[in-house]
Amino acid sequence: MPDSTIALEPDRALTHNNAVYWAAFSNEGRQLATASLDNTVKLWNVADGALVGTLKGHGDGVAFVGYLKDGRIITASLDKTLKVWSAEGALKATVTGHADYLSCAAVPQSGTLFASGGFDKAVRVWDAEAGGAVAVLSGHEAAIQAVAFSADAAVVVSGGNDRTVRLWDLATKKGGAVLTGHNAVVEAVVCSPKDDLIASGDADGRIRLWKLNGESVANFESRSPRIRSLAFSPDGRWLAVGGADGTVRLFGAGDQREIAVVSAHKDAVYGVAFSPDGKLLASAGFDRTIRLWRVAMG
Fold first, then answer.
1. What are the angstrom distances between the C-alpha of 250 and each of 42, 208, 272, 295?
2. How far apart are CA 56 and CA 50, in angstroms?
3. Rounded CA gap, 31 and 50, in Å?
4. Are 35 and 75 in contact (CB under 8 A)?
5. What is the pLDDT of residues 142-155, one digit of tens each?
6. Which of 91, 92, 164, 296 has the highest local Cβ count within 10 Å?
7. Does residue 192 contact residue 230 with C-beta atoms inside 8 Å?
8. Burial of 231 per CB tally in 10 Å (0-12, 13-18, 19+)
9. pTM higher than 0.70
10. How far apart are CA 156 and CA 116, in angstroms?
C-alpha cells in the first residue's frame, strides 16, 4: 500500500493536570505511560483508556518515561533525578548525579541501560541492574535537549543548545562524530529501530537525517515552526514529527515526503510515540492532553 494513503484518525484523548512532556507504549503495546509537569506519570490501558496507575514521587515535572525490555519503567524529572519502577509501578530505585535540570532521557530496545541529559551539559548512562552511572559523557558546550540509543544500543546520540548532534561509543565511553549543520537548537533526536539512520530536529523546524558513521543523508523543512519531538515507526518507514504549532506530521524516512498531517493539540507537541505494532501513534501536548491516533492505511 502506498504511503500517500496514510491518515491519522482520532482514537481517544487522555488528560493530566499540567503539560504532558512524554508518552511511551509498553513493549507489548497494552499500556501507555505519560509523563507530566504535574510531577506524575500515569499508566493507561490502551484498549479502553482506563487509568490503571499513577507513579508519584518526583518533586518536579517529569520530562520522560520509558519501558525497559523487562517491563521496568524509567522516569526522569526536572528534580534532577531518575527513578526505576517495577512493571506494576512500585518504586525500586532513585538515581542521582545531574548537577542541574534534567531535560531528557532514553531507553534502548533491549538491555538494562538508560541515558539522560540536561542543563549540566553531560550525557549520563546508567544501569538499572547496577543502580548507578556507568558513563559520564562530556563534550557538549551547552544544555542537552535530547538523547537516543542506536538500534543495537552500542551508541548514544545527543543534541542540544550548541546546535550539534554528538555520537558516543558505549564500548569505549568516548565521543565520536560531532554532526554539524543545524542553525538552531537541536530539540529532538531519534534513531531508527531497524537500521543506522538518525533523525534530528531543531528550533527552526528543520530535520536532518544522518548515518551512525556521521554521514549526512538529508536536510529538509518540516513546515512546523519548531520541532519538539520525533519518533520512527517500528519498521523504520515513517518519521513522526511533533511541532510547536500543535501539529503532528508523518514523513517517509526514505524520501522525506510528508504523507500525513493532523492538528493534534492546541499548543506544542512535546512527545510522539508509535505503538509496537505501528497501528497507533500517541502525541503528548502542552495543552495537558495525550491523544491516540489510529494510523490508517486507506
1. 26, 15, 11, 10
2. 18
3. 10
4. yes
5. 999 999 999 999 99
6. 164
7. no
8. buried
9. yes
10. 10
Kind and range of the H or E run holding 11: strand 6-15
C-alpha cell at 272: 510522539
Residue pair 85/92 in contact by the 8 Å Cβ criterion? yes
Residue type, 196: D
C-alpha cell at 118: 540536561
Phi/psi of residue 288, nearest 5 degrees: 75, 10
- Measured in whole angstroms, the distance separating CA 275 from the mean position of its chain's CA atoms is 13
DSSP states of 246-290: SEEEEEETTT--EEEEEE--SS-EEEEEE-TTSSEEEEEETTSEE
**Hey, CA dihedral for 257, 153, 61, 139, is it positive or negative?**
negative
> What are the strands of the beta sheet with 41-45, ordered from one edge?
20-25, 31-36, 41-45, 51-55
How far apart are alpha carbons 272 and 283 in whole angstroms? 5
CB neighbours (10 Å) of residue 105?
27
Q: What's 176's DSSP letter? A: E
* Ramachandran class of 256: left when φ > 0, alpha when ψ lies in -120 to 50, beta otherwise: left
Q: Cell numbers of 103, please? A: 531535560
Residue 204 half-sphere exposure, CB side, CA atoms within 13 Å?
13
Q: List C-alpha distances in Å: 153 to 72, 99, 171, 205, 206.
A: 17, 25, 10, 28, 26
- Residues constituting the chain: 298
What is the SS3 assignment for 3? helix
Cell 546520540 appears where? 157
SS3 5: helix
Residue showing cell 519538539: 228
Q: Which CATH class is domain 3-297?
A: mainly beta
